[in-house]
Amino acid sequence: MKNSPAILIVTALLSAQLTHLVPCASAAAKKSAPPGADIARRSESVAAHRSPEEQAAHEARIAWWREAKFGLFIHWGLYALPAGEWKGKPVAGIGEWIMNRAKIPVKEYEQLAKQFNPVKFNAEEWVQMAEDAGMKYIVITSKHHDGFAMFGSKTSPYNIVDATPFKRDPMKELAAACARHGIKFGFYYSQAQDWHEPNGAGNTWDFGPDNRKDYDQYLRGKAEPQVRELLTGYGPICLVWFDTPRMMTPERTARFAQLVRTLQPNCLIDGRLGPGDGDYLSMGDNKIPPMVVPGDWEVPATLNHTWGFKKDDTDWKTPEDLTFKLVDIVSKGGNYLLNVGPTAEGVIPQASQDNLRRVGRWLKVNGEAIYGARPTPFGAELGAQVDGRFREAKDWRCTTKPGKFYFTLFTWPAGSFQLPPMKAKATKAWFLGDARTPLRLTTTDGKTTVSLPEKAPDNIASVIAVEIDVPKPGKD
Ligand code: JFZ
């Protein structure tokens, strides 16, 4: 098991409390930029502009999120009705973009509201599913780019209470269900693009180019008042997930940030509001960095290939793949925000539910390796540079807690698992879910191996917990 110097340098950037876990290989001089270095720089720059007071406030409000690791994203809106098809023809691309992709005029798209009647919607069931999946927070589209508010808005009649036969406010029901289940509740809000409004960004087919619009009229007249409504009418909001910051100058960004910080100081702001002011970096959709990334960051991701429901997209990621991605992301220091796209009837597709619940069953046994866990101090297990390209390795991942390492094995080794080189001494090992059966540790020539049974105890991935004796600072 070799530790590439580049990987060790990224590892060394981790917080001071982890430094005692850095493996013993010497941090050799950096030869070329390690994979993921650009992302690491971006992540660090998120925090760079904060004053000490802002940094302290940020630390306080993000503490729960750092523990949570796994959240449910929900993309739900009028686009669930066409479900990827317009006038009998499939429309390529993500489902919630159908108005834009098919250049549907506002007057036509608006008509969808009259048919939107999700009678099977049940907030309790949705939140129960998130809980079963082991997810700790929910972020739902309160208004996507199509401009339709999925909450009862006084700012615009183009909303689910006033414009549909449904007449209920599902956001109120979800907020209440989340409170009952102890799950944090947050809103996605498309602050910049609003294809329904003449002065919102994005709708060039009805309203002409964005640079001729009175953008601030839209921001002040709709987006800002709606964000205010969301932060005053639904109890504690854990997070506002802004998106696609088109034309968001620092000044416009600051207006939204001010709103959030004033109305709900504990509410997080994601990384897509505009320049500055976010609490964490939002990675590109479905983009998992190759390396450990310092700072706070999240990967928003789909279960198939769309966010909003599309009837033809049944290409689901498997529970095995989802579990790997969750562990992979946590071992690199991030959060996983995984999306479902409910139907126009208000039902989360069964395959999404099944696959998420399977991950939840794995977490019931192995969650100790995930919630509140810190990234790997190693790195060689993530992959290596081969012929100038990064080749990912997928055999195992490591997460940590004070005094403990968790090795999640996705490939079952024959007989034993050799621990990567480390300063700390491994004193005890066991499988999560079977803490009373110790696994034998053998050290020869400075290499420690854990003896394993022939068969993996978990069908998806087994986690070996290793207790370590951390060397005292000052001694090598
Ligand atoms: C945006 C939306 O346009 C999309 O509909 C969905 O809501 C998604 C979660 O976010 O799409 C993006 C935004 C940013 C990136 C990729 C897709 N990005 O930074 O790579």
Topology (elements, then pairings):
Blueprint: H1 5-12, H2 37-48, H3 52-68, E1 70-74, E2 85-86, E3 89-90, H4 98-101, H5 106-109, H6 112-115, H7 123-132, E4 137-143, H8 160-163, H9 170-181, E5 184-189, H10 204-207, H11 215-232, E6 239-242, H12 250-263, E7 268-269, E8 281-282, E9 297-301, H13 319-331, E10 335-340, H14 350-366, E11 383-386, E12 389-392, E13 396-401, E14 404-409, E15 416-418, E16 425-431, E17 434-438, E18 441-444, E19 447-451, E20 462-469
Parallel strand pairs: 1-4, 1-10, 4-5, 5-6, 6-7, 8-9, 9-10
Antiparallel strand pairs: 2-3, 11-12, 13-14, 14-20, 15-19, 16-17, 16-20, 18-19
Helix pairs in contact: 7-9, 7-14, 11-12, 13-14
The structure holds 4-nitrophenyl 6-deoxy-alpha-L-galactopyranoside.
4-nitrophenyl 6-deoxy-alpha-L-galactopyranoside (JFZ) binds at residues 94, 96-97, 243-244, 284-285, 300, 307.
